[in-house]
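User: Please fill in residues for this 259-position structure.
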């Protein structure tokens, strides 16, 4: 059955796009058909897979506007089973269109995904770092949410607001929406603060942390290769197959597949 996973956190710099890109790639390398939808106007997920503004004509803005379908804009990537629906800075303009012209504007992305979802095993949506109309669209379209949590100071700041937004979307628009899990990112075992943040997560959300069949937790480490790979237009698995980041996101994909 198709699973549609939104990667969401209104805080920037928590590893949201890194997770969207590398989880998509890891699932695709497990022979799953995956569509990554870049719903962030910053279009970092698009750039991370090697695409730039002059390499594609249409993007998610045109889908949200109603002039193109997801099939119209989908791009092939370096992994045969991974497709990309790209973004562009022009997507910021869609919020103005929503307010003036659109009925049921929070369901535009869902309606477009419903048309093509039978083609995929997983659809991963990279959300913008805000709780505006685009993020509401991603939550309305998703079956579940992964929330990356940076293992640093103020990590849990704003989390209550995000959880409340998810609860409201579930109550009013998308009754099947569930929190799939919290994902600790930028973790360092040598850093006492990182260990404390992880301990706080485990205390409050033990049943929502990702685990492998051996009960070991999935955490995303601080890894220079993870930071470098977007500038080469490759997911970490293709950039450095032996990197700790590759192992971590492969483990996340396994935890999701083992379900």
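Assistant: Residues filled in for all 259 positions:
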């Amino acid at each position: 059955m198709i699973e549609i996973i939104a990667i969401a956190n209104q805080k920037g710099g928590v590893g949201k796009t890194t997770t969207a890109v590398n989880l998509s790639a890891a699932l695709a390398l497990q022979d799953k058909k995956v569509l990554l939808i870049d719903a962030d106007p910053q279009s970092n997920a698009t750039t991370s897979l090697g695409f730039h503004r002059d390499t594609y004509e249409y993007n998610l803005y045109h889908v949200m506007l109603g002039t193109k379908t997801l099939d119209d804009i989908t791009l092939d990537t370096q992994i045969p089973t991974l497709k990309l629906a790209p973004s562009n800075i022009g997507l910021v303009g869609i919020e103005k269109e929503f307010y003036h012209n659109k009925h049921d504007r929070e369901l535009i992305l869902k309606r477009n995904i419903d048309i093509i979802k039978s083609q995929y095993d997983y659809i991963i949506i990279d959300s913008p770092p805000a709780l505006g109309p685009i993020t509401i669209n991603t939550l309305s379209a998703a079956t579940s949410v992964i929330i990356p949590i940076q293992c640093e100071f103020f990590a849990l700041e704003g989390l209550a607001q995000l959880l409340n937004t998810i609860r409201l979307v579930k109550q009013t628009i998308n009754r099947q929406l569930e929190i799939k899990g919290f994902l600790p990112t930028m973790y360092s075992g040598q850093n006492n603060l990182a260990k404390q943040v992880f301990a706080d997560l485990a205390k409050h959300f033990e049943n929502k942390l990702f685990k492998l069949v051996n009960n070991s937790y999935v955490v995303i480490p601080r890894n220079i290769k993870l930071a470098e790979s977007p500038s080469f237009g490759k997911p970490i698995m293709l950039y450095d197959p032996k990197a700790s980041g590759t192992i971590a996101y492969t483990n996340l994909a396994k935890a999701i597949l083992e379900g």
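For context: Residues 244-258 form the longest helix (15 residues).
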